[in-house]
Specification:
Rossmann fold; four-stranded antiparallel beta sheet; 11 helices; 12 strands; globular; binds adenosine-5'-triphosphate; Oligopep_ABC_C; ATP binding; ABC_transp_ATP-bind; ABC_transporter-like_ATP-bd; Peptide ABC transporter substrate-binding protein
């Protein structure tokens, strides 16, 4: 098997909490607490979960926007989490980001031409002015904006068009992986679909790897290959899209999915309302972090943390989940798969 474009091993990011009279560290926000995944060339992995579960912190850690507490981030076989900044520079080109807010992520004082030319110049990707112009024009074509729009300013574009410019700017660096952090969340529904389609087309055309961070499972369903579900700083389940949507193997995923509308009336999911709020990442629950809200929790869940491990899945390989239910017999396990099979049959 070829080396994954991105590998994240047991990543931890604990933010210190300062307080007291002397401003010392009084505790930590365990924002990301042992997260591992990898992404292959041409693959989209979506990282989903409710607000505050640590998705953006994973994205920022991968981009090395801050130092991590522990773990490894490996880009194309090379560890970048401990790389000195001089060596990191060329690696930075290979990982680009598209942010949520297309209004604040583009410099209002730069014309589109300069926004796109900047990474090409900075990373030395054009040998002369003519090549630079040609690359800028090709980027406009790629994101389906008219070439003459390069002379305009960001404020002259709609939200969706600005996001296209944001995507073009990311592509300008000729990256291997794009991290989309809630890249379509701020857009209107119809525009969302267009940008998702564009990202999907570009990914196929360019063979990019993509980490798609989103709280919106309905969007993810349309564009991803695999999904990783996060809860309170940990990944609780990873699976190919089809398996995850048809037969979730973690109660949290099951609850998240129950809120996603299903187009076919006969296949409607029963809505699961979770009790209580997400606990604080400053003081996460012992045992399984989800046990305080889990409808199926039993004694073991309150004391013993379940590891992420392979679970049986009739739909295919590569399904992992962190849940003690899978040690029970299929008859006792509410996630053993019958619901998923029924849903799939109705599709
Ligand atoms: N710089 C920081 N200092 C302290 N705590 C932080 C910092 N950044 C994030 N956190 C905390 O870490 C936890 C995870 O935040 P993060 O932004 O990664 O979550 P998220 O899943 O991306 O949610 P959202 O979509 O709302 O941003 C939250 O409790 C957040 O308050």
């Amino acid at each position: 098997m070829s080396t994954p474009v991105l590998q994240v091993n047991d990543l931890k990011k604990h933010f210190p909490l300062r307080g007291g009279l002397l401003g010392g560290t009084t505790g930590y926000v365990y924002a990301v607490d042992g997260v591992s995944f990898d992404i292959a060339k041409g693959e989209t992995l979506s990282l989903v979960g409710e607000s505050g579960c640590g998705k953006s912190t994973v994205g920022k850690a991968v981009l090395r926007l801050f130092d991590i507490t522990a773990g490894q981030v490996i880009l194309d076989g090379e560890r970048i989490d401990d790389m000195p900044s001089g060596t990191l520079r060329p690696m930075r080109r290979r990982m680009q980001v598209v942010f949520q807010d297309p209004f604040s992520s583009l410099n209002p004082r730069m014309r589109v031409r300069d926004i796109l030319a900047e990474p090409i110049r900075n990373f030395g990707l054009a040998k002369d002015g003519a090549e630079l112009e040609a690359k800028v024009a090709a980027l406009m074509d790629k994101v389906r904006l008219p070439r003459d729009a390069v002379n305009r300013w960001p404020h002259e574009f709609s939200g969706g068009q600005r996001q296209r410019i944001g995507i073009a700017r990311a592509l300008a660096a000729e990256p291997d992986i794009i991290i989309c952090d809630e890249a379509v969340s701020a857009l209107d529904v119809s525009v969302k679909a267009q940008i998702v389609n564009l990202l999907q087309d570009l990914q196929k055309e360019l063979g990019l790897a993509m980490l798609f961070i989103s709280h919106d499972l309905a969007i993810v369903e349309h564009m991803t290959h695999r999904v990783a579900v996060m809860y309170l700083g940990k990944i609780v389940e990873v699976a190919p899209k089809r398996s995850l949507f048809a037969a979730p193997k973690h109660p949290y995923t099951e609850a998240l999915l129950s809120a996603v509308p299903v187009p076919e009336p006969g296949a409607a999911r029963e809505r699961i309302i979770l009790k209580g709020d997400v606990p604080s990442p400053i003081n996460p629950p012992k045992g399984c972090r989800f046990h305080t809200r889990c409808p199926y929790a039993f004694d073991r869940c309150r004391t013993e943390e379940p590891p992420l491990r392979a679970v049986a899945d009739a739909l295919g390989e590569g399904h992992v989940a962190a849940c003690h239910l899978h040690d029970l017999s299929p008859a006792e396990n509410p996630l053993s798969g019958s619901k998923g099979a029924a849903l799939l049959a109705a599709q």
